[in-house]
Amino acid sequence: MAIAATPAPPYYAVIFTSLRTAGDNGYGKMAEAMEALARTQSGFLGIESARDGLGITVSYWESLEAIAAWKANVKHLVAQQHGRDIWYEEFKVRNCRVERDYAFAHS
Amino acid sequence: MAIAATPAPPYYAVIFTSLRTAGDNGYGKMAEAMEALARTQSGFLGIESARDGLGITVSYWESLEAIAAWKANVKHLVAQQHGRDIWYEEFKVRNCRVERDYAFAHS
After folding, report:
1. Are A57 and A91 within 8 A, CB to CB?
2. Interface check B84 vs A, CB under 8 A
3. What CA–CA distance (Å, rounded) separates B35 from B72?
4. Residue A88 burial (CB count, 10 A)
């Protein structure tokens, strides 16, 4: 996975931090499907994800409205319910406004 | 690593996303030292970190001033320079204002 190529700020970020329950229980397949679905949402700017014990997924959006529409997507609502029922021991969601960013890359 | 126990919003987040160069080159030791040092900074609220290929570290702060003071910490400045010279192929830093958060935990 690459660093997301987001536009100049301001834009919005959803930081989703989670601890999984034991076993896959269909999680991997659903996570892939949800990422693919997020990429088709209006206002989607990018996504970054990593897990080693703690999981962190940050998705980037043009507006709070775009975030609200993604949260209310019917297929995503089903995944959110499975998440609470089966996949996650614990999670926290933080909605943020990105005010400033800067990047570095070796030439 | 646990999900950070941050206070009610608003507060600030620094999302640091990175791709490492090959080899440790002293990175692990320095990363531990920098996390310990961050925890002693005024205005520090918490930190969350994961890496599997892509690395994501999110640190949480009371104010933009607290973030600026941490960025200017002399030992941290040295680590930042090593990061650009040796440890990171590429990174992106995003400073955000956390507007809203919510959490879930299995009872």
Report:
1. no
2. yes
3. 15
4. 20
Residues 11-40 of B with CB under 8 A from A: 13, 15, 17-19, 21
What was the ipTM of the complex prediction? 0.95
Using an 8 Å Cβ cutoff, are A33 and A16 in contact? no
Q: Tokens 């297929």: give the residue.
A: A75
Using alpha carbons, list the distances in angstroms from residue B79 to A1, B29, B94, B106.
Answer: 25, 11, 18, 39
Distance CA B51, CA A53 (A): 10
Residue showing tokens 């975030």:
A67
- Count of other CB atoms within 10 angstroms of residue B57: 22
Cis peptide leading into residue A7 (ω within 30°):
no
Q: What is the pTM of this model?
A: 0.96
Beta bridge partners of residue B18, listed in sequence order: B55, B91
With 90 as the cut, is the pLDDT of residue A106 above it? Answer: no
**Cα-based torsion angle of the residue sequence A24, A17, A73, A21 in order, rounded to the nearest 10 degrees:** 20
Number of C-beta neighbours around residue B86 at 10 A: 14
